[in-house]
Write a structure and sequence with these properties.
This protein has ten helices and twelve strands. By secondary structure, it is α/β, with parallel strands linked by helices.
C-alpha cells in the first residue's frame, strides 16, 4: 500500500488548519486506513482533569484511529499560547528537528496515513535558526494549504504557495475555509485562487454550527491527493 503522508499549513493562525486536518483524518479512517494526526509543536495548554492538554492535539487524536503515545503525536507541548519560539524560550526548551523526525518515523510505522499539522502560518519561528518551513522541508511531504477566506486572503495564499514551492515542496492541494462569512465577493475570490494557486481545490469548508471533523469532512474531497502521499526521496534521506 502506498504510504499517505501530508503536511497541512495555513495562510495564518486561526484559519481552520486543525479542523481540516481532523476532517482529513476522519475521511482516511473511514476509508479503512490506519490514520493518525501529528502536531509536532503545539503552544497553548489548558489544565483538564489534572493534566495539561492542547485542544488541537486532542482533536487530531480523536479524529484518527491509531492510539499512539502523546510524545509521538506532539513532541513539543508548550504551555503559553504564543509564538512557539517565545513559548519555548519561556520554558527553557529548544525545539530540534531530530526529535520531531524520530517521532514522525515512529508514527509512520504505526499508520497507513499520517497528517502533520503545522503551527500558525508556514514560516512561524521555532528558535533563532529553525522555523516551520524548515520542518516541512525536513519532512519532505506534499503540502495541503488551508486558506482562510477573508479580506487579504489572496495575497496571503499566493505568498504562502510561493514560499512552499521555493523550498522545493509540492503544493498538493488547498482548502478554502470561510472564516469571515460576511466577506464581500467570496465566489470571485475563490475563482481567483483557483486560477492562480496551480493546485487542486479539495473543498470549501463553511462556517459550521458544530465545527466537528465529521461535519467538515462532508465538504472535502481527497481524491486529488491519492498520488501525492508517497515518501519523497529527500524525506527518506532525512530519516535515514
Amino acid at each position: 500500500m502506498t504510504p499517505r503522508r501530508w503536511f497541512v499549513t495555513g495562510t495564518d493562525t486561526g484559519v481552520g488548519k486543525t479542523l481540516v486536518s481532523s476532517a482529513m483524518l476522519s475521511l482516511l479512517a473511514a476509508s479503512g486506513l490506519r490514520a493518525v494526526g501529528m502536531k509536532p509543536v503545539a503552544a497553548g495548554l489548558d489544565l483538564v482533569d489534572g493534566a495539561w492538554r492542547n485542544d488541537d492535539v486532542e482533536q487530531l487524536h480523536a479524529s484518527g484511529n491509531v492510539d499512539a503515545p502523546l510524545a509521538l503525536r506532539c513532541p513539543y507541548l508548550l504551555r503559553a499560547p504564543m509564538s512557539p519560539h517565545l513559548a519555548a524560550r519561556e520554558e527553557g526548551v529548544r525545539i530540534e528537528l531530530p526529535q520531531v523526525l524520530s517521532a514522525f518515523a515512529a508514527l509512520s510505522q504505526r499508520a497507513d496515513a499520517v497528517v502533520v499539522e503545522g503551527v500558525g502560518g508556514f514560516c512561524v519561528p521555532f528558535c533563532h535558526d529553525l522555523d516551520s518551513a524548515d520542518l516541512a522541508v525536513a519532512l519532505g511531504l506534499p503540502v495541503v494549504l488551508v486558506v482562510g477566506l477573508r479580506l487579504g486572503c489572496l495575497n496571503h495564499a499566493l505568498l504562502t504557495a510561493e514560499a512552499i514551492r521555493a523550498r522545493g515542496l509540492m503544493l498538493a492541494g488547498w482548502v478554502a475555509s470561510i472564516v469571515e462569512p460576511e466577506m464581500l465577493a467570496p465566489e470571485a475570490n475563490l475563482q481567483t485562487l483557483r486560477g492562480r494557486l496551480g493546485a487542486p481545490l479539495l473543498g470549501v469548508v463553511p462556517r459550521l454550527a458544530e465545527a466537528s471533523a465529521a461535519n467538515a469532512a462532508r465538504h472535502l474531497d481527497l481524491r486529488a491527493l491519492r498520488a501525492t502521499g508517497a515518501h519523497p526521496a529527500r524525506r527518506a534521506a532525512a530519516l535515514a
